[in-house]
Amino acid sequence: MGAVSGTPAAEARKDGRAYIKLSLDFLENHRTGPLSPVAKLTLIGLWMYCARNRTDGVVPAAYVRRVVRKRFREVFTAAGCWHHRECTTAAPCLHGVCAAGASCGQGVYVLHDYGKHQSLHSSTGDKPARDTRAYIKLSVDFLENHRTGPLSPVAKLSLIELWMYCHRNRTDGVVPAAQARKIAPGRIRDALTTAGCWHHHECTAATPCRHGGCTMAAPCRQGFAIMHDYRRHQTIHSDPIRRQEQARSAGESGGLAKAENRRHTASEIASETTDAGGGLAYASHKLQVIYSSIPLGDNPAVSNAREGKPQREKPPSPSPSPQSQSRSQSQSRLGPRARHGGHDVADRLNAAAPEIPATQAMRRRVLARMVPDAVEVLADPHAGPIRHAQAQAELDRAAAVIAARAEFLDTGDVVENPKADRLFDPHGDTGYARRMAAAQHPLPVPDPVTPGEVRAMAFRLARDHIDAITRHGGRAPGSAREAMRAELEALFGDGVHQDVLRAELAAMLNGGIWAASKLRERLHQART
Questions:
Q1: Would you state the pLDDT for residue 451?
Q2: For residues 223 and 230, is the Cβ–Cβ distance under 8 A?
């Protein structure tokens, strides 16, 4: 361990991303241990959803139906990982368009003991008992970031298990080669190495791993692996005295900074008004609101419509003008505008064009998008036998990709199949790895034929475009999604190909353009 205790300055920087806490017994405890790898990752994804959206362990039923398979919902209920709460007029869930006067009737799922494990963002009076178990930190983008996102569910869980091993044994991110072989099989280790999740170090007399019977005089020669950026994410145990000193100094500096900020805020508030008496009263009122009624960890900029959250008292404001009064009255009469369609309509539209082809006709259309040249050669009677054989091999390989993709979505892994693997590497042993990599990429979307498929593709393209602009800081109005969907559906009816629309939407995304009318104008300019 002494040979690897030093870390570069860049690796010592603190990771500022949000995270969830994953207890070290997550993989084997009585509640989550019997779950399959895909079910475990699905449950982790639900915890990440609650952390990102600050719902304190409450997941809307519409979102659950959209992202969690039915058999996993039944497994979570049987294992006690959550419980369903009905949404009624007397007890509305207050999520999405649900209000006290008009309940949505869909209900929510409440995750088991979320408040005992994770950080809460609502100011409830009764705090649950603190969970004293050791844990590792898992960033909320773990399932989809560039390094771990392409990994299979089994590889993701193996990586989590390696982090848990390092925390339990206090190795600070160092895993002996023998332990790595015991936790992860060969193909998983190769995938982690390719993704850059760790790097291997040889065990020599100059740099011994010092695990087990390994010493500087008699190195074990097995080597060890160092987890990528472990010291930036997890707790370090190599120097507890230094950690305590850092925590003490950080607490002192934080207290001094908070006191200085309190004095600075008081002086700024006192100078806001011209009346000295009124200014001092307003400053005292605002200081009490800021520093007495806001619990630690609450973000005033993020709204939370859950029950029991007290409304923050505001200072008196000047009387509004007649124009603003009439405008507020009209808005209160209209009420919140519901998003078009809702999740139920989206589910029905997505079912009209699933990713895995449900019929032979849809399968032929997907193959035509994957290998158009091979389909054209096979349809040409004048092509020679060699070209026919090459085209048939490409078509068989594409069919194997569809089968592997269906297996990957259903089980989270792809079983080794020598017959199918030879289609990807006839003379080597990397066919399974190539087929696994191909199964992790979504299949191309075939051109829509039926009205349901046209409407489904228009809905998806409009949803992805507006959501992407909103994530990048755009201010799209509530009607932008429906306007874009209607425009895309009309363009599909006019015969515009989906590739042209996707390329134009990508160009509009780079410019931050969300208006549906601009799409037709840009297409007209491109044609002329």
A1: 84
A2: no
Average pLDDT over residues 168-174: 82
Contact between 50 and 59 (Cβ < 8 Å): yes
Domain count, the chain: 5
pLDDT (0 to 100) of residue 320: 52
Query: Which residues face 201 on adjacent strands?
Result: 224
Q: What is the pLDDT of residue 305?
A: 38
Do 175 and 212 touch, CB atoms closer than 8 A?
A: no
State the pLDDT at residue 215. 67
Maximum C-alpha span of the chain: 97
Same domain? 180 vs 219: yes
Report pLDDT for 282. Answer: 44
Specify whether 375 is located in the same domain as 482: no
User: Residue 342: left if φ>0, alpha if ψ -120 to 50, beta else—which one?
Assistant: left
Give residue 222's domain range. Answer: 141-238
Average pLDDT over residues 441-449: 86
Out of 251, 270, 292, pick the residue that ends a domain: 292
The label of the residue with tokens 């760790």 reads 198
Q: Are residues 146 and 233 in the same domain?
A: yes
Identify the pLDDT of residue 50: 87
Average pLDDT over residues 155-172: 86
Residue 199 phi, psi dihedral angles, 5° rounding? -140, 145
Residue 54 maps to a domain: yes
Residues 310, 119: Cα–Cα separation, whole Å:
19
CA distance 279 to 275: 6
Q: Which of 139, 159, 184 is the last residue of a domain?
A: 139
Q: Is residue 384 part of a domain?
A: yes
